[in-house]
């Protein structure tokens, strides 16, 4: 199995930008302009308002290919909406007697500093990419025509945008052997992003490229033309003046969504550890030790985000055996102890994984991780299985609450699990996570046939 490497960079830039911008708007207000306001109330109201506005206006949706004029448009839109919020705040707290003239001075200072910081960060990143070759993504282009040549020039002539271009393949009269050589090159060069000209590929070649990208954790984007493509919700972007289509839009690639999900994970896992595991662990530990010799916890290597291996923790529910990392538990499995049957039926054995969530290896909700041996097997047998590794694995997931948890008895089980996992990845929201957690709890209370 190849070592998969997908370009996920600068995941902390957006949260850092939030922190700095919030520091600017709150410090200016309290220290220089609105000294009579209650600091705690102002910081809470204005900070929440800024975050909500920026999320709705996509103020922090600035990418390496975003043009300066687009950034300036975002700044003006954000400041216009923020001005309305500040006036609304001063009107609600009318006794503060904040004059409109003071508000406009404040907004002007915020505008200057936020704009200055935003463009400073933008140009510093460009300088870093151009001078030091950092923060880059390795690219390849499939198909040769005027559009792809323009994109190739963009990659090569503008190193400040952070793209390292390897090769442009001519797909005219390409053979099946040539296509496989192309795929091998993409793997050997650790290409992060594949740009595909729709006019140069046949439908069968296009399907093979899509399958290759999905199964090897490569980001696939298209250069559009008048040719029909699959009926999916595609993400439309511009690199300089070249239009690009992204085949798969993953909400959790957005830093804001990552931050929201991580906060949810930390709060939820901390609550479970403090309120439940703190007193339940000693009881379970005593029961496990009384029945059979061996460790209290069971550690197993599994594949997580970006195919990285991590140690997944559980309460030990079986007698120690050599096949624990190879064979999945089956109905009536003789390895399962009496206390093991109970904790597996009630899913108590999974609770230590909340430490995995706290450590950042897992999420509360996401595709369930498989044993490394099973992952290697399914990656070869099941189409698009590797797509599950675009996000962190979860303690529970959409597939599990939809009837596809536990033992994989037939190929249909794993195929449907992959379908539900991909749907979750492409349609993530915090409300969906809460719904899955709630449904998981209800399933535990009602009992599940495949919990054994």
What would you say this structure looks like, in words?
With 452 residues, this protein is α/β, with parallel strands linked by helices. It folds into three domains: 119 residues, no CATH class; 114 residues, 3-Layer(aba) Sandwich (Rossmann fold); 192 residues, no CATH class. It has 14 helices and ten strands. The chain has a six-stranded mixed beta sheet with strand order 2-1-3-4-6-5. The protein has a two-stranded antiparallel ribbon with strand order 7-8. Strands 9-10 form a two-stranded parallel ribbon. A hairpin with a 2-residue loop joins strand 5 and strand 6. The two termini are 30 Å apart. The N terminus is likely disordered. One of its GO terms (molecular function) is undecaprenyl-phosphate glucose phosphotransferase activity. Pfam families: Bac_transf (PF02397).
């Amino acid at each position: 199995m190849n070592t998969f490497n997908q370009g996920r960079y600068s995941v902390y830039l957006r949260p850092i930008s939030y922190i700095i911008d919030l520091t600017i708007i709150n410090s200016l207000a309290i220290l220089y302009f609105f000294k009579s306001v209650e600091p705690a109330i102002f910081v809470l109201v204005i900070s929440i308002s800024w975050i909500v506005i920026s999320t709705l206006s996509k103020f922090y949706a600035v990418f390496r290919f975003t043009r300066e004029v687009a950034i300036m448009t975002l700044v003006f839109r954000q400041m216009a909406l923020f001005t309305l919020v500040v006036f609304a705040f001063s009107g609600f707290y009318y006794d503060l007697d904040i004059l409109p003239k003071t508000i406009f001075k404040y907004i002007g200072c915020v505008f200057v500093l936020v704009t200055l910081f935003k463009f400073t960060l933008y140009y510093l990143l460009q300088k870093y990419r151009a001078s030091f070759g950092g923060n880059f993504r390795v690219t390849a282009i499939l198909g040769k025509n005027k559009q792809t040549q323009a994109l190739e020039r963009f990659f090569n002539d503008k190193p400040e945008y952070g793209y390292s271009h390897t090769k442009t393949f001519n797909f005219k009269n390409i053979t099946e052997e040539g296509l496989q050589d192309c795929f091998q090159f993409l793997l050997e060069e650790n290409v992060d992003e594949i740009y595909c000209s729709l006019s140069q590929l046949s439908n069968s070649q296009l399907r093979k490229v899509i399958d290759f990208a999905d199964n090897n954790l490569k980001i696939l984007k298209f250069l559009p033309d008048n040719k029909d493509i699959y009926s999916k919700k595609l993400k439309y972007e511009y690199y300089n003046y070249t239009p690009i289509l992204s085949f798969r839009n993953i909400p959790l690639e957005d830093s804001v969504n990552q931050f929201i999900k991580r906060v949810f994970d930390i709060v939820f896992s901390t609550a479970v550890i403090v309120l439940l595991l703190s007193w339940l662990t000693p009881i379970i530990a005593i029961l496990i030790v009384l029945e059979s010799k061996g460790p209290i916890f069971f550690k197993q290597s599994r594949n997580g985000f970006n195919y990285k291996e991590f140690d997944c923790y559980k309460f030990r529910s079986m007698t120690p055996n050599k096949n624990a990392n190879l064979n999945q538990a089956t109905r009536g499995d003789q390895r399962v102890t009496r206390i093991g049957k109970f904790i597996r039926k009630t899913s108590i054995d999974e609770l230590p994984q909340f430490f995995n969530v706290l450590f950042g290896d897992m999420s509360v909700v996401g595709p369930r991780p498989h044993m490394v041996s099973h992952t290697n097997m399914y990656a070869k047998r099941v189409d698009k299985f590797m797509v599950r590794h675009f996000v962190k694995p979860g303690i529970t997931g959409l597939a599990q609450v939809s009837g596809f948890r536990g033992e994989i008895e037939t190929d249909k089980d794993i195929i449907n699990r992959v379908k539900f996992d991909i749907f979750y990845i492409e349609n993530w929201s915090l409300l969906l996570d809460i719904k899955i957690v709630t449904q998981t709890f209800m399933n535990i209370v009602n009992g599940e046939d495949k919990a054994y």
